[in-house]
Please model this.
Amino acid sequence: MADLVAIAFPSEEKAEEVRQRLLELQKEYLIELGDACIAVKQPNGHIKLNQLFHPTATGAAGGALWGTLIGILFLMPLAGAALGAAAGALGGALTDVGIDDNFMKEAAQSLQAGNAALFLLIRQMTTDKVLEDLKGVGGTVLRTSFDHTKEEALRQALAAHTAAATGT
Model:
């Protein structure tokens, strides 16, 4: 069972920094992410999603490859590539993997303009090591599916930055 975490940051750059840090931890097998998306509230109120995985582009590329191969069989590789790319893009657009886009947009509406939220779908995590690495990054927990003790530990790890910055 995966856990969902949403953390607000003052800027997209800070959210991206934390996402990259977590992706490095994933390379060390300390965390397994199903998705890591950043939602940014624009000055006009719209929410921009910055996703790692783009199913439409991936589907179009795969479809073009298969369409070309099938098109070669019928001596029409360009037509096959075009039809394959269109079918792949359509299939990719209809496939939503990871965290639901509408959920992220609704949750990010509470942000101030220019702020960002990092949404994480965590499949597995070595909690103590990941939280130790997240100390000092800042951020405010918006939502989690963690139990109360794990959520409180995350809040404390993120709040450690605030205490260090104010000198208390």
Observations:
- The two ends are 38 Å apart (CA to CA).
- The CA atoms of residues 36 and 120 lie 5 Å apart.
- The helical segments are 12-27, 55-73, 77-94, 101-108, 127-134, 148-166.
